[in-house]
Protein: GGDEF domain-containing protein
Organism: Leptothoe kymatousa TAU-MAC 1615
Amino acid sequence: MDLYPEQLQATSDFLRTSFLRLALVAIVFITPFAIYNFLVAQYLISIICWAILIAFTVNAGLIVWHNRYRIVLTQFGLVPIILLLLVVLLGQQETIGIFWCYPAAGSFHFMLPRRHAWLSTAVLFGVSIPLVSAFVPPNLAIRIVVTLALVSIAAAVFVRVITEQQHQLRVQAMTDPLTGLLNRTLLHETLDWAIEQSKRSELPMSLVAFDIDHFKSVNDTYGHDVGDDVLCRVSTLVKERVRRVDKVFRLGGEEFLILLHGTGKDAAQRVAEDLRERIALLELLPERSVTVSVGLATLQPNEDWTAWMKRSDNNLYRAKTGGRNRVEV
């Protein structure tokens, strides 16, 4: 099951954080370089350096004040300016200009998603190799290109390892360890996301709240190990029944919530009834069946997530007080 909207969050957080650090480094180290080149009448280099600083500052400002990292501003704004600076430096300063290629190659992987970073690196190689070959002996040029490639690969590997570790930690933090379902960590954010999706695309969204009837007596009669097995098998059935775009949460104990994406009232009711019937047919306990009570609520116009969820909880309460093993809409 997808973990959206967290499925790319680790990469996004890493890029935002690393970009802010790189922006700070750029201000500290490029500003004196820009001033120096202006003083020695290297006006073109100075102007390009100031353009780089402005590009860093604008995107850093968006991150700090709006928590938004505009990758497009980096890909089509900052990166081309950096490449232009490398071309000018290689053309005017030759060997000295080569040294600037190394931090540029590494920084791409800290500022851009993987595919964009490799694309920018490929352009860097395409620009720098002909210029380097023009004033450096072939054997030295090969060494420069190889070391430049190693710097880029090392940066890519480092970023990949860090983002994968962050993703694993996030999955652990937002996943119920017993059932493998989502826990409450992302409930608010996910429901808000669904409401925004519904507003933009006019897709219906429905919540299915359910809990296992008389679950306390299951634990009291058969023990908590059996109760845990019941929870796991019910969770497995639900995960197999819903689509990847749907989200299933274990809210605690025997309480569950399903977000049915793009699903209106009638279709959601069919899903809820099907789940209720399938669970009742499972042979989970000797000499007794396990049933669930279900409350359904389809998102209404201008409704926030708390009101939406409260309606599903109220309908679940009606199902329980109305005799259990039923669906209330």
In short: Strands lie at 205-212, 247-252, 255-261, 292-298, 327-328. The first helix runs from residue 9 to 39.
